[in-house]
Each structure stands twice: as structure tokens, then as C-alpha cells.
Write a structure and sequence with these properties.
By secondary structure, the chain is an all-alpha fold. Helices cover 73% and strands 2% of the residues. Helix 1 crosses helix 4.
Length: 256
């Protein structure tokens, strides 16, 4: 926010937590607790910069306090951290039920994304969707890329923000799980054809058709995943999730 560095954000957070003005020595100790190895002279320099931007105010020897603007910015940053932590917990897959819940969330948002894309997609985006709807081999990245592209083509900032959360790269291993389900259940070709139909409906500017096909596509994915888990293969899915998550930089699952 406003080009604040991470250490400046932490300084604002430290000042926000104080009931009295805070000096550079106290701030330096608090920064050390947060993992920042910095000197008091560096802290003083950073505080001077925050003063000049209207976020903090010097009370001489007493130390610094937040200005009204500084407190507002710090409040927003804290809200962003809480929101980020909330999403982080939501993205952890502990069970098949969590995976199903994730797909249900996608079903809700992606039906709206498909409708909006049919109304707002540019000619270039329509071409891209048509290309992504044609798989080459397993085409794992193309399958997920298709869904990402539909969200982008919606040109709805709210939908795009939610879709970006649902399609972060750390969740790519989930696609390999649904790919396994599709192959084992013998429905992968049907799912791939759904992509072609969705792309066609968007190209035809058929908002109802695009929405209905996307909903049916994800609804089928949910049903087949549930059926696969009930057939006794649920442990296989969890093992695959853990195996794929171990290869990513941000684990989907907590260690067993």
C-alpha cells in the first residue's frame, strides 16, 4: 500500500500496538522479534521517511506516534493480513470434503464468470479460449488455464479477484487429482468436450448457455469426485494431494 516496504509496514504495526509514543530502540527490538536484523540508525531513517509521508509524527524524545492517516493505513494492512491468513487456511486441503468444498466454491463463481465472459470477452480472448479448449495429451496446464482464462475474460473485477484466489499456482496439484478422477471414472473426454462447448457459447455471446454448461461441467466434476471417493479410492486422492503438494513451494496439506 502506497509503496510501503515490508519493514515499514511492520513499523506501522508496532506503533499501532503501542499505548504511548515509541522510540527507535523499542521499535528495533520489536522488529528483531519479527525477524528483522536492523540497527537503530536504520530505524530512525525509516521513521523519518514515514514522518515525511504523513504516517507518523515525532514527539521529540518521547518517540513516535501514528497520525490519523498512518492509523488508517495500518488498519487496512492488518485487515489485509487477516484476510490473507483466512484464505491461507481455506486453501489447505485436509480431506476429500475440503476438496469437494473447493469445487463447490468454483462452481458458484465460475458459472458467473462464464456468463460475464460471454457478454464481455474480447475477440482475442475468445480466440484464446478456443485454443485452450483443445487439449494436447493430458494438457494439465491447458485445462486449468482454460478456467483461468474464463475468469479473466469476465472483465468483472470482483469475479477476477475471487477467481485468482481459486486458481493460485499452489492449487495446481488439485487439477492433477481431478485429472485422475476423470481418467479412472472414464469421463475425461466428456469434461474436455465441456470446455469446447463453453468456449463456443462464449464465442456466440450465449450467456445463458455458457453459464449453464459451466455449472453442469463443475457439477459433474463434483459428482464424479464424490463417487470416486465412495468407491474406496478416497485415500488414493489424499495421497496424491500430499505427493503433489510436497513438490510445491507452499504445501496444500499439513504434514502427516
Amino acid at each position: 500500500m502506497r509503496d510501503l516496504s515490508t519493514i515499514e509496514e511492520v513499523i506501522l504495526s508496532v506503533l499501532r500496538a503501542q499505548v504511548a509514543p515509541a522510540g527507535s530502540r523499542l521499535i528495533c527490538r520489536e522488529l528483531a522479534d519479527e525477524g528483522f536484523d536492523t540497527s537503530e540508525s536504520t530505524v530512525n531513517r525509516l521513521l523519518t521517511g514515514l514522518d515525511s509521508r504523513g504516517f507518523t509524527e515525532s514527539l521529540g524524545r518521547k518517540g513516535r506516534i501514528l497520525t490519523g492517516e498512518g492509523r488508517r493505513v495500518s488498519d487496512v494492512l492488518q485487515l489485509d493480513r487477516h484476510r490473507s491468513a483466512y484464505f491461507e487456511r481455506a486453501l489447505q486441503m485436509h480431506s476429500i470434503e475440503d476438496l469437494i468444498d473447493h469445487l463447490i466454491a468454483r462452481r458458484g463463481i465460475e458459472r458467473e464468470a462464464a456468463r460475464a465472459a460471454a457478454l464481455r470477452a474480447t475477440p482475442e480472448e475468445i480466440v484464446l479460449l478456443g485454443e485452450l479448449a483443445e487439449p494436447s495429451g493430458p494438457a494439465l496446464h491447458d485445462r486449468l488455464g482454460f478456467h483461468r482464462a474464463v475468469g479473466d475474460a469476465s472483465h468483472n473485477k470482483q469475479i477476477q479477484a475471487i477467481a485468482n484466489t481459486l486458481f493460485v499456482e499452489r492449487l495446481d496439484p488439485l487439477e492433477s487429482v481431478t485429472l485422475t478422477v476423470g481418467l479412472r471414472q472414464g469421463v475425461l473426454s466428456e469434461w474436455e468436450n465441456d470446455h469446447r462447448v463453453i468456449a463456443a457459447r462464449i464465442a456466440e455471446r450465449d450467456a445463458d448457455g455458457a453459464e449453464q454448461t459451466m455449472f453442469a461441467h463443475l457439477d459433474a466434476t463434483i459428482r464424479e469426485t464424490e463417487a470416486f471417493a465412495r468407491s474406496g479410492w478416497g485415500d488414493v486422492l489424499l495421497q496424491q494431494l500430499r505427493k503433489d503438494a510436497d513438490r510445491s513451494s507452499a504445501p496444500l496439506l499439513p504434514p502427516t
